[in-house]
Backbone:
């Protein structure tokens, strides 16, 4: 990561423009107004963290962690709900730093597991997670999703 003055820091409401752009790069185009609404929810939730990668004042990556208690076993489950690195910074170690920071935060919050989901089309992303020690358990554990907005099964 030579040439970068990269620091990890909490995401702030002032990052709304950068996050809007990052979400667009991830394939989730949206508006700054919508992102600001989401940021309010995230930043006010004590079980959620948004970790940012900052290069000399520019937000170039974000990891979104949510922690919840488990009933079936002792401890908590962390979910890395989103990870995005600006396309100009990909393959330079930024994602790895964000995942490591997410793991540290999850451990500090009492998590015994960290779960990540990723669209089946993102094969390069899957390789990245496997290199970091994550196992693809889809053969042994199904995932069911239903949209509560319209009652129809989720399509992706």
Residues:
């Amino acid at each position: 990561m030579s040439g970068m003055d990269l620091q990890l820091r909490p995401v702030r409401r002032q990052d709304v423009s950068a996050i809007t752009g990052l979400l667009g790069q991830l394939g989730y185009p949206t508006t700054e107004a919508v992102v600001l609404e989401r940021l309010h929810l995230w930043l006010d939730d004590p079980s959620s963290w948004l970790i940012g990668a900052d290069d000399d004042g520019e937000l170039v990556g974000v990891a979104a962690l949510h922690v919840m208690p488990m009933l079936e076993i002792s401890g908590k489950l962390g979910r890395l709900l989103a990870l995005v690195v600006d396309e100009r910074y990909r393959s330079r170690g930024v994602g790895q730093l964000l995942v490591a920071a997410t793991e540290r935060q999850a451990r500090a919050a009492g998590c015994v597991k960290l779960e990540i989901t990723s669209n089946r089309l993102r094969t390069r992303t899957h390789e990245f997670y496997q290199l970091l020690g994550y196992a693809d358990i889809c053969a042994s554990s199904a995932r069911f999703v239903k949209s509560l907005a319209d009652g129809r099964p989720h399509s992706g």
